[in-house]
Amino acid sequence: MKRIVIIFSLLVVSSMFLFSCRDDTNMRKKITGKAGELVVVIPKETWEGQAGQAIRKVLAQPQLSLPQDEPLFDLIDVPPVAFKEIFKTSRNIINVRISPTLDSAKVEFKKDIWAWPQAVVNVRAKSSEELERIFYIHSDRIAAYFLKAERDRLILNYKKYSEKAVKNTVLKNLNVTLHVPPGFVVAGAGDNFTWVRYDTPDIMQGIAIYTFPYQSDSTFTQDYLLQKRDSVLKAYIDGPTKGSFMTTEHQLPPLFSVFEFKNNYAAEMRGLWKVENDFMGGPFINMAVLDAANNRIVVLDGFVYAPRFNKRNYLRQVEAMMYSLELPDQAKNDKISSQVKMGN
């Protein structure tokens, strides 16, 4: 659990911009493969040995805060001799090379080598033992790199095909910009609150967006944000039966971290939600962002209900929508942040 918390800390603070919009993108091959897949190009004997076990231990470890175990990535091992065109357009690739003639071991982070938008990590080592060692050294950064690549692809798509009706309503009600894909609708609104959702007969994805005045640094504590979350959701999101409402599953405490979101101070919680007086539940991500220019906190609370399905990818989709958030006075926020850092 400690390792995966470190990975997500690296993910949220990462300043790498993986995919730039260039004029030639329409002329290039598009990535292939399903969301969450990661191709590992590695000799069979190495994959079956301790070095392969190290890779699986890191990249197939359980995803954070889901009700059932799901791997961080779905790994597909491919021997170098079989790494042909069909695999070269995969969305995520780790390319392992082991040779005693190499000058030194190294890890390289690349993008868009064979397709767009693609994330590639080259790992070079003189032996399987050295491969295991160097992979563990860089493992958190490698995992964060691919997680961010998955999220950035979704954000890119949501911005391109944003549901304008929802975008306009959120902007009007809360003075923030949020990009969600077609099919999302506004499910409810109140004082400094808007709830958007997408429903099918099998799943539900939702994001509750709300704001409140910033009063002190104690806002960015787990206890404060949990109390705020429960009070807002109880007031605005009813369950399917009379007297039922959404709340946090406190028997499994959420994971909590603070980070910078687009140069703004922020906090994130990941955990499980439930419906009080009913039987619904699932995973959630809560992100609180300081909008210093407007002296307020902007909170996005994303959640998934998919009782018969794996939830990892549904939750990552919601997370990407949340990370598409744009504040109205970011230039002022940047100036305030710069002044605070200079004062420190």
Descriptive terms for the model:
344 residues, alpha+beta, Protein Transport Mog1p, Chain A, 9 helices, DUF4837, DUF4837 family protein
Give the distance, in angstroms, between the N- and C-terminal Cα atoms: 32 Å
Beta-strand percent range: 25-35%
Uncertain runs are 12-23
What structural class is derived from the secondary structure elements?
alpha+beta
SS element count, helices: 9
Average pLDDT level: 92
Would you count the extended β strands for me?
A: 13
The coarse silhouette is: globular
User: How many structural domains are formed by the residues?
Assistant: 2
Find the CATH superfamily of the largest domain.
Mog1/PsbP, alpha/beta/alpha sandwich
What is the name of the CATH class of the largest domain? Alpha Beta
In angstroms, what is the radius of gyration? 21 Å
Write the topology of this structure.
Elements: H1 2-13, E1 37-41, H2 44-47, H3 50-59, E2 74-78, H4 85-88, E3 92-98, E4 106-111, E5 119-125, H5 128-160, H6 164-174, E6 185-190, E7 193-199, E8 204-213, H7 222-236, E9 245-248, E10 255-261, E11 264-276, E12 281-291, E13 296-305, H8 312-323, H9 330-343
Parallel strand pairs: 1-2, 1-3, 3-5
Antiparallel strand pairs: 4-5, 6-7, 7-8, 8-13, 9-11, 10-11, 11-12, 12-13
Give an overview of the whole structure:
There is one protein chain. With 344 residues, this protein is an alpha+beta fold. It folds into two domains: 155 residues, no CATH class; 183 residues, 3-Layer(aba) Sandwich (Protein Transport Mog1p, Chain A), CATH 3.40.1000.10. Helix content is 33%, strand content 28%. Strands 6, 7, 8, 9, 10, 11, 12 and 13 form an eight-stranded antiparallel sheet that branches. It has a five-stranded mixed sheet with strand order 2-1-3-5-4, covered by helices on one side. A hairpin with a 4-residue loop joins β11 and β12. The longest helix is centred in the middle third of the chain and has 33 residues. The two termini are 32 Å apart. About 3% of the residues have low confidence.
